[in-house]
Amino acid sequence: MKDRKNTKKGLLGLALILLVLAGIGAWIGISFFYESDYRVFPQDIKRGLDLSGGVSITYEAVDKENAGDQQMTDALKKFQKRAEAFSTESNVYREGDYRINVDIPGAKDAQAVLEKLGSAGNVYFIYAQDKNGVANVTEQDGKYVLARSLEDIIKDGDAPVDGTMVINAEGLAIQSQSGAAMNVVSLEFNGEGTKAFGDATAWAYSQGSGLSNQIAIVYDGNVISCPSVRNGAITDGKAQIEGNMTIDEAREIATFIRIGALPIEVTPIRSNIVGATLGSRALETSLIAGLIGFCLVVLFMIIFYRIPGVAASISLIIYLALDLMMLLLFEVTLTLPGIAGIILSVGMAVDANVIIFTRIREEIATGKTVRSSIKLGYSKATSAIVDGNVTTLIAAIVLYFLGSGVIKGFAITLGIGIVVSMFSGLVITRFIMNCFYNLGCTKPGLYGKERKKLNLRIVENWAKYLVISGALIIVGIIMLFVNKSKTDNILNYGLDFVGGTSVQVRFTGDVPERSDVEALVKSAIQETCSVSEVKGENAIVIKTKAFLDDDVKLKALKDAFIAKYGINEGSIETETISGSVSDEMKADAIKAVLIATICMLIYIWIRFKNIAFASSAVAALVHDVLVVLGVYAVFKITVDTSFIACMLTLVGYSINATIVIFDRIRENLNNATGRTMDSLKEIVNRSVSETFTRSINTTITTLLTVVALIILGVDSVRIFAIPLAVGLVCGTYSSVCITGTLWYGFKTRFGKQAK
Length: 755
Prior knowledge:
Layout: H1 2-31, H2 49-52, E1 54-61, H3 69-84, E2 91-95, E3 99-105, H4 110-117, E4 123-127, E5 137-140, E6 143-146, H5 150-155, E7 161-162, E8 166-175, E9 181-189, H6 191-206, E10 215-219, E11 222-225, E12 238-241, H7 247-260, E13 266-274, H8 280-305, H9 307-329, H10 336-349, H11 351-365, H12 370-402, H13 406-438, H14 462-487, H15 495-498, E14 500-506, H16 514-525, E15 530-533, E16 539-544, H17 551-565, E17 572-577, H18 581-608, H19 611-634, H20 642-671, H21 677-712, H22 715-750
Antiparallel strand pairs: 1-3, 1-13, 2-3, 4-7, 4-10, 5-6, 8-9, 9-12, 10-11, 14-16, 14-17, 15-16
Helix pairs in contact: 1-13, 3-7, 8-9, 8-21, 9-13, 10-13, 10-21, 11-12, 11-21, 12-13, 12-18, 12-20, 14-19, 16-17, 18-19, 18-20, 19-20, 19-22, 20-21, 20-22, 21-22
């Protein structure tokens, strides 16, 4: 009877899973044939400049002393609203304390964007109907709109108050005289505004009722509110706009009014047309790389773990669907690093499953039933999974708050991937495994065999690991000095770090091949460059770290293009990109890594209640960072904005691998009867041996997707993937060979001080 009941539960569960998979298939299938006004399908995910091309402009506050956080926030809101007039996919973000960057995908004319985007945002309080009975405002579809042009209204003297007269505006929730809650916009005017607003409200109030009794508030030509003057002239410089509005609507109106009175001036310091780095063919190859990586992960999991591997593979499909849905829900702007983060998370998503399956095998090997082994496996693996994922999530959070633009987008995709992967590993995979068990998959052999127990002598070989690590780090440091002597920079900084020149060239015919353009630039001015195509136009954008502000190089470059492609000089436009961003970006990169590391180590210290764990973890992290930094130096890999994402991903991955070993050391310590130096050595060796298979398998599954990116991905993705692959291998090496040894050293050499 019980078996029949379990079979029924298994069938119902499996039917539910099949229904979910069918729904995912239908969702993806329909998306290719159906267009929606809402973001409901994968292709509706917002795309950044590197995916669709467009215009990028950076503004800086002129008077930094008066550019406080509130003023910069209001300016950001203004630019966001204005940018959305060009494209709803526009992305506006703070860059440092005094800069705002505006990315407008799909825009093609940087000058036109500058003229409209950079004009002062103005707020005007106008008479809804002038003194001659002519309507300035009319109502259409339940909304107020201008009946005449704003220029004519101002010229006729019907705009007595403007935004410069407003001191402050706030959206508030208050209690009315009758005791009911209401939402209002509270206004405060300066001396000039107090008199002007008092005169305007006195006249409007004298009109009694109707349109002439109303004063409309206009922001950038749009009527945002049109309240009536009900209680007499307002002469004290303070007013409230009341009406049927939510608190969010009240705050939005207040923000628009404050924007019009923004007391800061901004100036554009950079503007350039960005070609889509990832064209349609390149996007296709990146997606193919992701699909190949995904299939290899599934194949590996099924072969190695059998029934649990099948459950994990199904869970992985659901995970990907949930991940895409979260990107749509939170309207994440997807960029190249974001795509790399998503594909990378496919490999990382199986990590929780690998930890659990390893534990299940161990329990089965002791003679326990499959049912008990599944239950104990999840119970014993949960702490390592949670601790490991939380530390990586801390890295993503730091990246989100300290990064900007594409880096922030990467942080969001990484953070979403971590949260969803924990849910899929701890909940969905377990549900599927229980379904298979209830359907009769109860034989231990279906869950894989426990391999012969390893007996690694990690602690005894500490000197060998010291030599290997020392050699790698020393080579990297030497190359940093060599690069400094040759190029005056320790690393191959990209255009975003050191500045340079952006050149746009328009062609009358077909756009030449990228390799031909690169060769032409190299021949003409002896400089390397990156080339991207402007989507929808016969034009390319060339970026070089050289500052082509001297007549000789610039003339040589123009002459070379004119001679080879028969274009005129007017088809070539140059833009100098400020190198002043360099120090800020370098400082942000260092600050992000340090703060993320400190936060993660504090978490480890609290969770493991032992400073020896945190100290050895930080030493291993420094090791990993130095090795990967050496890779950047030796192979002269371009250091751009993805460098921060790579380093923080490395830190998070390395910590995650380390925590799994620390969790096993903690467990074995609690089970140990004595803690002599020899027993501590054996605990470290046994803990590393017991988790070795997990460490290798997790690295393999993650590397499968990264290697696929390296082989098939475009250059900008490959630049991210190559050092990341090195970091994954290095992180595994340090967690297996170094962290446990360091912990043993701290415990035996410092004794009670290492508690």
